[in-house]
Give the backbone structure.
Amino acid sequence: MTWHGWESEGEKADRRLMAAMLTGIVLFVIAAFMCGEIGDRPAVEVPLPVATEPHSFHAESRGPGWGKARAAHLATHPACEVCGERVAVEVHHYESVSRRPDLLLSPENLVTLCHRDHRYFGHLGNYRCQNSELRQWIKAIKERKEE
């Protein structure tokens, strides 16, 4: 028990052990999900936006050619590469634009993802992150679907 915010050394050790155990469980569940052992989707669904127009996040800051490149990509790749969804799709860059601005308009650097898969697969659940192995993951997912 804590008393006025003070913890004994044993209580601190117990709290650290519990945090380590919970971290291990979370990492195990994430790894199992990514390996396909827990199903197709995470247990908590991210609500999809109700979109009547194509997603245009960063459109103004990406320059005049981005809208045209995005539209051309969606014309040839209209569905999410992970799940096949065709609603609320977004164009993701394999190589981050902040790291490789020269690849902003490169068709080889673009992939279509639905809103949910963009977050989970493209950014590993955190838009501050970039999944550097996304190409390999999509290839593995497609191979698995063909089995």
